[in-house]
Each structure stands twice: as structure tokens, then as C-alpha cells.
Amino acid sequence: MSKGYAEGSALEERLADLERSKRQKHQKDAPLRLAVFGSTADDAEPHFLGWADEVDADDLFASGDAYGIKLRRVPVPTRRAAPRRDGAAPR
Fold first, then answer.
1. The pTM is what?
2. What is the DSSP letter of 47?
3. In sequence order, which residues have a C-beta less than 8 Å from that of residue 73 and are 6 or more positions away?
């Protein structure tokens, strides 16, 4: 007779969680940085305005240059070697 809790979708989900946690152990946590998002007169959709340590969100709002400002912690983008335009390999 089955016990119910040791089989079926609950067991499958628990095993999937264990597998995900094993895979994520090997990945390094990306450093986070505080970013400023908001809307402007040119673009009403919220978008990236700058890094919080480089732009002053209060000044952007007070001047009317941006509205709906939110601060979010986002992963810091990494620099990848892009191919050069002349076709040469990156240094």
C-alpha cells in the first residue's frame, strides 16, 4: 500500500528541486548592482536610466526628466570579447 507522500507529482517536484540545487551549486552568484529604471518623455515604458551611483534618481524626478523611478538590484553585466569589425580575433 502506498504512503501517498512518497510518490507522484510531489516526489517528482522534490527530486527536480534537488537536481536544480546541485546544478546551481557549481554556478557562481553574479554580483548585483543598484540600477535606476524609469520612464521619460521620449519613452513611456520603464527602461534603464543608469547606475544608482552614477545618476541621481531624486534629481531626475525633481527636474521632470524622468518619472515612475524605481531602484532595482540587477546582475552586473560582464564584458565579453566581441569580434573586431575588421575580422581579426579579439585580443
1. 0.56
2. E
3. 32, 33, 34, 35
| Percent helix / strand / coil, the chain, rounded to 5 | 25, 25, 50
Number of domains in the chain: 1
Structural domain boundaries enclosing 67: 29-77
Residues whose CB is less than 8 angstroms from the CB of residue 11 and which lie 6 or more positions away in sequence, other chains included: 5
Residue 35 near residue 52 (C-beta atoms within 8 A) = yes
**Is residue 46 a part of any domain in this protein?**
yes
pLDDT in tens, 50-86: 999 999 999 999 999 999 999 999 988 777 656 667 7
Return mean pLDDT, the chain. Answer: 81
In a domain, 88, yes or no: no
Q: Is the dihedral of CA 72, 74, 47, 53 positive or negative?
A: positive
For residue 57 the three cell numbers come to 534618481
